[in-house]
Amino acid sequence: MRIDGLELEFWRNYLHAKLEFSPGVNVFYGANAQGKTNLLEAIAYLSSARSHRARYDRELIMLGVDNGFVSGQVWNGQRAVTLEARLGRAGRRQLFANGVRLNAAGELAGHFRTVLFCPEDLFLVKAGAAERRRFLDQHICQLRVRYAAALAEYKRLHEHKTRILKDYPQRPDLLDTLDDFSLRMAQTGAVIIHYRAHFVRKLAQHAPAIHSQCSGGGERLELDYKTVSTVTDPLAGAKAIFQQLLDHQQSHRQAELESHMCLSGPHKDDLEIRINGQSAKEYASQGQARTAALALKLGARELFYADSGQWPVLLLDDVLSELDQYRREFVLERIQGGQVFITACEEGDFPRATRFRVADGQVVG
Questions:
Q1: Of 4, 108, 163, 331, which one has the greatest count of Cβ atoms within 10 A?
Q2: What is the DSSP string of 237-258?
């Protein structure tokens, strides 16, 4: 899997850019705040229609402009696909694959996959549960179209139910629809839990070995998926999970009414990370947390390969400068094979790499 070319118009600080890439290592280098990360963000956007640092699409459009555009020519096996995203500040985005409009972002899952590693990910282990859920969602959405659709629907339902719980004291009639929203959240939530549990199980087959090698064999990484307490087997089918979610919702219904918050569902899930049997969130040192974060990202990359027989495109956003010499060399050795994009302030010593100098929203070398 690779991307051969990228075209941008009014994307972040790029008025226009048209680039061609090597199938191996590509390096974007230059001073800070020139647009290097914007290029990685654009590539990643083509795989999921999501940005790792923008909540709304309008943030991706150049200031003072109403519309933005990103297009990429990608290869998936022996199949060439042109992916496009047209963004509007006032309207909905439009996504296309070979000129055919896609109905939802989840439909990108069958075309192009990326794994992005940025400096913020080095704190993934120590951050709150929301960041680890984001890690799960970013990767599973690229693997399974059904998961992406369920996640989008669940978020919509959660927003509606939250508004009902907040507003019903002033509008008691809203409670007439509360149970319907809870039922539908349980249906979509069961799908989310099922896929998350299977992803974590597979990730646990890849990440610990990477972690052991990166830590010199002296530490043991363990991963566990934590979800709603009534779900006895998250790996079970969605039908069984659905009933258990309903039971949990019913037991928390009064508490939700009193707190005006949704207290039941996979929006409270977590990925538990342990090092040598202890909670990494509570007890890991900074170095241990970074090694674990590396293992999670590189483990996800290997999981993608195991799923399709193709390496996803790996995007390393200025993370090498944040790592010590040993971990930096470990990453560079581990990423052999597949297409890689690296951002750095200096041109650096990257053997056999294609280099692009970035300055003020332009690729000049």
A1: 108
A2: -HHHHHHHHHHHHHHHHHHHHH
Angstrom distances, CA of residue 156 to CA of 151, 181, 193, 246, 267: 9, 10, 17, 18, 12
What residue spans of the chain are helical by DSSP H?
A: 36-48, 129-143, 145-167, 178-203, 207-214, 238-259, 280-283, 286-308, 325-334
Map tokens 């056999």 to a residue: 352
Assess whether 97 and 134 both reside in one domain: no
**Number of structural domains in the chain:** 2
Query: Is residue 358 within 8 Å of residue 36, measured between CB atoms?
Result: yes
Residue in this structure with the two tokens 């010593």, named with its chain if needed: 349
**Range(s) of the domain holding residue 284:** 122-309
Q: Which residue has the tokens 């300055």?
A: 359
**H or E stretch at 95:** strand 94-97
**Measured distance CA(293)–CA(124) in Å, rounded:** 6
Same domain for 32 and 100? yes
Angstrom distances, CA of residue 93 to CA of 58, 136, 219, 306: 9, 24, 45, 32
137 three-class SS = helix
Q: Tens digit of pLDDT for each residue in 75-112?
A: 998 899 999 999 999 878 999 999 999 998 888 887 99
**What residue type is 299 in one-letter code?**
G
Q: Which two tokens stand for residue 110?
A: 């069958």
